[in-house]
Structures are given as structure tokens and as C-alpha cells.
Amino acid sequence: MTFENLLIADRAGVRTVTVNRPDKLNALNARTLDELRLAFEAVRDDEAVRVVVLAGAGEKAFVAGADIGELATLTPVQAQVFSRAGQRLMRAIETLGKPVIARVQGFALGGGLELAMCCHLRIASEKARLGLPEITLGLLPGFGGTQRMLRLAGRAATLELCLTGQPVDAARALALGLVNRVVAAEALDTEVEALASQLAGSAPHALAGILDAVVRGGECPLDEGLDYETKAFALCCSTADMREGTSAFLERRKPAFTGT
After folding, report:
1. With contact defined as beta carbons under 8 Å apart, do 116 and 61 qualify?
2. Which amino acids are annotated catalytic?
3. pLDDT tens, position by position, for the chain (260 residues)?
4. Are residues 162 and 225 in the same domain?
5. Is residue 39 a part of any domain in this protein?
6. Residue 138 shares a structural domain with residue 208
7. Longest Cα–Cα distance in the chain
8. Phi and psi torsions of 55, nearest 5°
């Protein structure tokens, strides 16, 4: 599959999807949103891909937001379609069933931060700047930013960042729970690759079960969430990987998970 605005690379069970519009700071226009949708549909259906790294081209930005040139021309009806398309993409990534790691360098603003927040893990360069500046355009986040930031950082921080539009540096983003790790800029690729490789070597059914229990179960009342966990646990016990993992532990060796 060939894309105009994405680069795709595979290595040892890890697929890297790079938004490739560096001249626009990787801004999300309608075409890029559609290409990301197709790219993640392909990931869902490809058993060889166990982990995804989502990145932005160049060093200035992960994704600097939605394409303002397109936003400025939207009618209310078109805006609703655009918002829904973005929300569907973010939800598809969030519920992919495979771990998605955001590699965050430079700016992650507006739709870019919304894209990072729907990923399961976020590793940021110490030079990263994150925020939801839509208020400065007379808008509010439309790709799920209000809801995901609320769940990650809490009400007070969400209201502050959305109402003021002011970005935060990587250290504050870490303190708020918007990113999982902050590393030196020169160590970002090494850190992301190490985490992706670790996850790619894990049992896929267990990874999917954890994601399902946390993402879907976490949106339910406690009893329903516990039911998600129980069903995922039982399903793992039907897999060859579970037998391999427990045998490897007892035999004091490293497990070799096959996804079966």
C-alpha cells in the first residue's frame, strides 16, 4: 500500500508509521487522516505486526495539529464530518488490540496531542512541547482531546490547558501523566526502539487482553471491568503462549512466544 503523506517501515514485528509532511509540521489534513485510517486497518489485519510506533517526520514536530488551511474553510456540517472522522481514527488506534507507542519530538499540539493521547504509550523528547491551543483559533479540541486529557491528566489540568491554550514542556507533561517517559532528544529513538522490541517479544494474546481490559474495561463500572479482565485471563489460559511462558519460568529460561 502506497501513501502520499505516510512512511511505513517494518522491523522484527514492529511497524513504524510516520506522518510525513515536515513542511507543514506534519499537520493533519483530511487526506492524512484517511491514510492513517487505512494504515491502522492494515495493522489490525496483519498478524506479523505486533507493535506500532507512531512518529512524525523531522525534528520540529510529532504532529503540530490539524491543517489550519483546511479548518478555516469548513462549514458547520463539514466541521462535524471532519471531527467525527478524526474521532473515529483516534478510537480505532485506541482499540487496535496491539500496543501503539507515540514517539513525541518537538511540537505535539491540537490534533497532534490528540493523536498522541490515543496511543497506549508516549515517549517524549525533553524538547517536546504539548498542548491544546484550539481556543486561540476560536475553537475547541475536536478529535477527543477534552475527553482523553480529562482521563489522563484530570479535570483541573484539562481545563487549564484547554481554556488557556498554553502548551507545556515535557517535564510538566510527564508530571500530568500526558507522557510515560521523557528522555534526552538524542536518546529518543533508542528508547522507543527498546520498548517496541520488548513489547514485540511479548505474548500477543496477553497484550491484547491487557489493552482490552484497561481501555474498554476502564470505561465501564467496576464489575463490568472486572468481567473484561476475567474473560481475557481465561482466554490467555487457552493459548500455547501461556504454556510456554509458565514452562519457561519454571525451567528458568527466556520464553519464545509465537502468538498461538
Report:
1. no
2. 114, 134
3. 789 999 999 999 999 999 999 999 999 999 999 999 999 999 999 999 999 999 999 999 999 998 888 889 999 999 999 999 999 999 999 999 999 999 999 999 999 999 999 999 999 999 999 999 999 999 999 999 999 999 999 999 999 999 999 999 999 999 999 999 999 999 999 999 999 999 999 999 999 999 999 999 999 999 999 998 999 999 999 999 999 999 999 999 999 999 89
4. no
5. yes
6. no
7. 64
8. -135, 170
